[in-house]
TrEMBL record, chain A:
<feature type="domain" description="DML1/Misato tubulin">
    <location>
        <begin position="142"/>
        <end position="321"/>
    </location>
</feature>
<feature type="domain" description="Misato Segment II tubulin-like">
    <location>
        <begin position="2"/>
        <end position="122"/>
    </location>
</feature>
<comment type="similarity">
    <text>Belongs to the misato family.</text>
</comment>
<dbReference type="InterPro" id="IPR019605">
    <property type="entry name" value="Misato_II_tubulin-like"/>
</dbReference>
<keyword id="KW-0963">Cytoplasm</keyword>
<dbReference type="Pfam" id="PF14881">
    <property type="entry name" value="Tubulin_3"/>
</dbReference>
<protein>
    <submittedName>
        <fullName>Protein misato-like protein 1</fullName>
    </submittedName>
</protein>
<dbReference type="GO" id="GO:0005856">
    <property type="term" value="C:cytoskeleton"/>
</dbReference>
<dbReference type="InterPro" id="IPR036525">
    <property type="entry name" value="Tubulin/FtsZ_GTPase_sf"/>
</dbReference>
UniProtKB/TrEMBL annotation, chain B:
<dbReference type="InterPro" id="IPR002194">
    <property type="entry name" value="Chaperonin_TCP-1_CS"/>
</dbReference>
<keyword id="KW-0143">Chaperone</keyword>
<keyword id="KW-0547">Nucleotide-binding</keyword>
<dbReference type="GO" id="GO:0140662">
    <property type="term" value="F:ATP-dependent protein folding chaperone"/>
</dbReference>
<dbReference type="InterPro" id="IPR012722">
    <property type="entry name" value="Chap_CCT_zeta"/>
</dbReference>
<dbReference type="GO" id="GO:0051082">
    <property type="term" value="F:unfolded protein binding"/>
</dbReference>
<dbReference type="InterPro" id="IPR017998">
    <property type="entry name" value="Chaperone_TCP-1"/>
</dbReference>
<dbReference type="GO" id="GO:0005524">
    <property type="term" value="F:ATP binding"/>
</dbReference>
<comment type="similarity">
    <text>Belongs to the TCP-1 chaperonin family.</text>
</comment>
Length: 560, 535
């Protein structure tokens, strides 16, 4: 088995993670549920890749995500940082203090109140017949304050880490420098390394680290320091990094100072994060309106947008955990197993590009419909989940990896592996699209299950199995987890020249605001703890990332 | 007010408002930390919104937990925390001292003194106090065999302010022995060579010193021994797992057969490395009752574990980077990065290696080593917050012993130094200052008393009585500190109450610097600008 360790850094990364683990939890639940759709019983996914089996102090077996989540202090809401499974015998009774015989002052924060959904998870709310699932879904639509508000997963006691001593309030924890500084004391780093070691040590053969980083603020600095350590300690473990952003991080800067700070942050962040990871995938749109009409997402809700990103990341991760291909299972339920190292290798391609674009089609259209109405149209249903993406129709060196989860053939009928394969190969064979080489196709018949705490973001015309029904009215209240059981999702990681504008704008900003003589942001970079040499190195690194897209320098880039 | 033109959102406070804002912030922070100080202080239990508990009597921990928002308070807190980072203690004292300097200044400023005079006075007083400290300190002869008693007294003084007496006294011995264990003549003490390990288990007085190492992981093979005596220890950083080279080398397989071949070749290489280790084991152990333990920083995959287990070797993987160094210091031998030139000289030695399992957590004890230069303090506690608090105290204790050895001096505690320094400032220094700067010297001198005053207050004694009787003693030429039980003057030397010289020195150094900066603030502009590090 090839284990994956997941790392989430920053609040929005934890929002996405919360949805991501809800999917896993739902899959685990459905596999054991006899009344569930049989497709979930034979999902041929090995959950041990993401989860670990443990033993609590009370001698009970536990099954928890192999996860480290880093957030700011107080971002856990009602969730205890030591989780609920590894019961601590602590009592908050001041008289139980064992280490001090003198006076004890107790300073208690007002306990966070659990919402209806969380209450139904613990026993407290279960016997109340007046509260229905409808109310629980509504309460989440109304108000989500913390990522834990909609999480139904039990975490290990070493998983959740709160970063204290940041010396700044949340608004000001907004640049690479402050994040870097928080970890500079060494204490946090030691603790984080110890926790990571705990999860890695028990793995027989780690395939990689999957990492989600909210890179819009200080957490980018935190992550890069952590990743630097990881790169030192675990030299051969590939790191797949999603740099994620919520819609708020795209709000216009109020003044020029902030604008410069932000553009420098973006440049530094890309340069540093890509230095310490194997593949970086920017995820996050200023608005998810472009995904309409197949989804209706409220931009102002992180609860909504994170759900879409989580679906895509979940879909990408499916082939990492297909069970070893037996002669039968591979053809009937899934095909195209892949590990993190392989996907990175495929996407790096000849150019050794390491910034990939994530595209998603959710819910993915039925094969028969798209085949008839618009041959090859299935690949036109993709939406990119990143910004500043150019055109790659002319790019001959494009590499991509496509993953289709739970395709529908027509109506509510599920497509077989070969139908999906034919349908997609058709697009290439007919020359409707320049075929990238080597491209990879992974197919899983298991769709993405929609757990109860999933937001209501599906249009009225969505069926139980996630098909867009043509004969349904287009206008109406959005559907959620109570009406939609599962959705087919198709995702693609694309490594092409289309990412060039993204890197280019960051490189130019670093040059203009940080490196040129008299640049306005040079002091700022110094404040963040970067000497001139280090800034030059970052600039050189970004320019190297850009050069690979330049055909004339192709020959020279091979030499190193 | 031009800032308003540039940034309409900016909020500007004028001079006197700014001054009062900073003074209030300093006093506020002082109030929060005041009750922490000394062996009679109050411990604080912080309960978070989700019921998480944190227990602390340490100013440093408390400041970090408080999520301070006020920029002045942040500036003071940063200074105080920096104090802790560099000398290991004195956070609370620093905050109290700065707060008191601001309080004394406020009085003068209200009476019409310009802050500039105070600042000048502070500078004179600071220099004089530092000179006085040089004379006042008690030199400690360290040499090859340091006086254990004095080290214990310093450690005990620190620990008793963090933990109750019985526990503090027990830890005192552990801590002093730990530092002496890792101390190498002619070299700076590296406290990282003391591993602090914890187990959530039983009660806190079980904490002990392990001469050797405790690792927080165990072997990963069911057939490996759980306990072995007379062990050779191989410390290495060699990958004993099969890596796919394709990722790094960019190698493409043209067909399945080639792939199989590559995989087999790769596997063979790993196996060869394992075989080299086994060869060495056979060479040194065969025919004896000796055992062989491999502790590897990199991974060991199941096939390799199998081979090692069959050869009767105990193998641990993914050891902490720092433990590589510690293991060599504890057991001898050297840490190897390749198995090519393995000889017996690379191996360390431990009389006993055994595994201890608690739930899903495994611990491996490497004990009975020869001439250890690294050791482990094993903390046991019933729950996480108790462990965390003991751990903090142990760290502070270790620092205090290290400081003493490096300073080659200590300072009489229980408020004795502060009272003596004040007397010196008022009697000898004040008159040398010009004009109104005298007020600054006086304010500084009075501010020093915050330490004995707070100690008295926390012990439930009458502050004024205590200060008067202490001053009387000093006027008669005896150096006296405060007995926190009775409030009577005592001789700290007799009672064995000593503080670190470097900690005191730093408090006197940094306190007035921050206070002066705050006093000279003319305007506070809030324009969303983040307060950065103090200069």
């Amino acid at each position: 088995m090839r284990e994956i360790v997941t790392i989430q850094v920053g609040d929005f990364a934890n929002y996405i993670g919360s949805h991501f683990w809800n999917f896993q939890d739902e899959l685990l639940g459905l596999a054991e549920d006899d009344t569930a759709d049989p497709i979930f019983k034979n999902n041929c996914m090995d959950m041990d890749v993401l989860y670990r089996t443990g033993l609590s102090h009370q001698g009970a077996y536990t099954y928890c995500p192999r996860l480290i989540s880093i957030g700011s202090q107080g971002s856990l809401g009602t969730l205890s940082s030591s989780g609920s499974l590894y019961g601590d015998s602590s009592s908050s009774d001041a008289s139980d203090t064992l280490t001090w015989k003198g006076a004890v002052t107790k300073l208690a924060e007002k306990p966070h109140e659990k919402n209806l959904f969380l209450k139904s998870l613990s026993e407290e709310g279960e016997d109340d017949p007046n509260i229905e699932d409808k109310d629980r879904v509504q309460c989440l639509e109304r108000d989500v304050k913390f990522w834990s508000d909609f999480s139904k997963v039990h975490f290990h006691s070493k998983s959740l880490y709160e970063l204290n001593g940041t010396w700044t309030d949340f608004q000001n924890f907004d640049n690479f420098g402050v994040g870097k500084e928080v970890l500079s004391g060494g204490f946090h780093m030691e603790e984080l390394n110890d926790r990571l070691r705990f999860f890695v040590e028990e793995c027989d053969h780690v395939q990689g680290i999957q990492c989600m980083v909210d890179d819009s603020g200080g957490f980018s600095g935190v992550a890069s320091e952590f990743l630097e350590n990881i790169a030192d300690d675990y030299t051969n473990i590939p790191v797949l990094l999603y740099s994620v952003r919520d819609t708020f991080s795209y709000t216009d800067a109020t003044n020029q100072r902030k604008l410069i700070a932000r553009s420098l942050h973006d440049a530094v962040s890309l340069s540093k994060l890509s230095t310490y990871s194997s593949l970086i995938v920017p995820v996050g749109l200023p608005s998810l309106g472009g995904l309409a009409p197949s989804l209706c997402v409220r931009d102002e809700k992180n609860f909504h947008s994170s759900a879409v990103y989580a679906s895509a990341i979940h879909s990408i991760s499916a082939p990492f955990r297909f069970k070893p291909a037996g002669p039968i299972s591979s053809t009937t339920y899934a095909a195209g197993s892949l590990d993190i190292g392989e996907i990175i290798h495929i996407l790096a391609g000849q150019r050794q590009n390491m910034v990939a674009i994530l595209d998603v089609s959710m819910p993915a259209p039925s094969l028969s419909v798209s085949d008839k109405a618009n041959p090859g149209g299935i690949l036109n249903s993709f939406h990119a989940l990143g910004t500043e993406i150019g055109d790659d129709s002319e790019d001959l060196y494009m590499d991509e990896s496509l993953i289709f989860n739970g395709a529908l053939y027509s109506g509510a009928d599920r497509a077989s592996v070969s139908q999906v394969k034919d349908s997609i190969c058709n697009v290439y064979d007919k020359g409707l699209r320049p075929k990238p080489r080597p491209s990879h196709l992974s197919i899983s018949l298991t769709p993405i299950p929609i757990p109860l705490p999933f937001p209501s973001i599906f249009p009225t015309s969505t069926s139980r199995r996630g098909e867009i029904l043509a004969d349904q009215p287009l206008v109406g209240p959005p559907k959620g987890s109570l009406e939609v059981e599962s959705v087919p999702v198709m995702t693609r990681l694309r490594s092409s020249i289309a990412i060039k504008p993204f890197i280019e704008s960051r490189y130019n900003n670093l040059l203009r605001h940080g490196m040129l003589r008299g640049a306005k942001g040079a002091d700022l970079l110094r404040d963040w703890g970067f000497g001139k040499d280090e800034v030059d190195d970052m600039g050189e690194y970004l320019s190297k990332m850009l050069r690979i897209f330049n055909p004339s320098s192709e020959m020279t880039s091979d030499s190193d | 007010m031009s800032i308003r033109v540039l940034n309409p959102n900016a909020e500007v406070l004028n001079k006197s408002a700014a001054l009062h804002m900073t003074i209030n912030a300093a006093k506020g922070l002082q109030d929060v930390l005041k009750s922490n100080l000394g062996p009679k202080g109050t411990i604080k239990m912080l309960v978070g919104g989700a019921g998480d508990i944190k227990l602390t009597k340490d100013g440093n921990t408390l400041l970090k937990e408080m999520q301070i928002q006020n920029p002045t308070a942040i500036m003071i807190a940063r200074t105080a925390v920096a104090q802790d980072d560099s000398s290991g203690d004195g956070t609370t004292s620093t905050v109290l001292f700065i707060g008191e300097l601001m309080k004394q200044s406020e009085r003068c400023i209200d009476e019409g003194t310009h802050p500039r005079f105070l600042v000048d006075g502070f500078e004179i007083a600071k220099r004089a106090t530092l000179e006085f400290l040089e004379k006042f300190k008690t030199p400690v002869v360290i040499g090859d065999t340091p006086d254990k008693e004095i080290l214990k007294m310093v450690a005990r003084t620190t620990l008793r302010t963090k933990l109750y007496e019985v526990l503090a006294d027990q830890l005192t011995d552990i801590i002093v022995n730990a530092v002496l264990c890792i101390r190498k003549p002619e070299e700076a003490i590296d406290l990282f060579m003391v591993e602090i390990m914890h187990m959530r288990h039983k009660f806190d007085v079980d904490t002990r010193l392990v001469e050797g190492l405790v690792l927080d992981h165990g072997s990963r093979h069911p057939d490996m021994k759980r306990r072995a005596e007379n062990c050779y220890i191989l410390t290495c950083n060699v990958s004993l797992e099969y890596d796919k080279s394709e990722i790094n080398a960019g190698f493409f397989y043209s067909n399945a057969e080639q792939r199989e071949k590559m995989v087999a070749a790769e596997r063979r290489q790993v196996d060869q490395r394992v075989m080299k280790i086994i060869e060495l084991k056979e060479k040194v152990c065969s025919g004896t009752d000796k055992n062989f333990v491999v502790i590897n920083q990199k991974g060991i995959d199941p096939p390799s574990l199998d081979l090692l287990a069959r050869a009767g070797i105990i193998a641990l993987r993914r050891a902490k980077r720092r433990n590589m160094e510690r293991l060599v210091l504890a057991c001898g031998g050297e840490a190897v990065n390749s198995v090519d030139d393995l000889t017996e000289d690379c191996l360390g030695w431990a009389g006993l290696v055994y595994e201890h399992v608690l739930g899903e957590e495994k611990y491996t004890f490497v004990e009975q080593v020869k001439n250890p230069l690294s050791c482990t303090i094993l903390i046991k506690g019933p729950n996480d917050h108790t462990i965390a608090q003991i751990k903090d105290a142990v760290r502070d204790g270790l620092r205090s012993v290290k400081n003493t050895i490096e300073d080659e001096a200590v300072v009489l505690g229980a408020g004795a130094f502060e009272v003596a320094a004040r007397k010196h400032l008022l009697d000898n220094v004040k008159r040398t200052a010009k004009g109104r700067a005298q007020l600054g010297v006086e304010a500084f001198a009075d501010a020093l008393l915050v330490i004995p005053k707070t100690l008295a207050e926390n012990s439930g004694l009458d502050t004024q009585d205590v200060i008067v009787s202490l001053q009387n003693e000093h006027d008669q030429g005896t150096v006296a500190g405060l007995n926190h039980h009775t409030g009577d003057p005592i001789d700290p030397q007799m009672e064995g109450i000593f503080d670190n010289y470097s900690v005191k020195r730093q408090i006197i150094n940094s306190g007035p610097v921050i206070a002066s900066q705050l006093l000279l603030v003319d305007e506070v502009i809030r324009a969303g600008r983040n307060m950065r590090k103090p200069a």
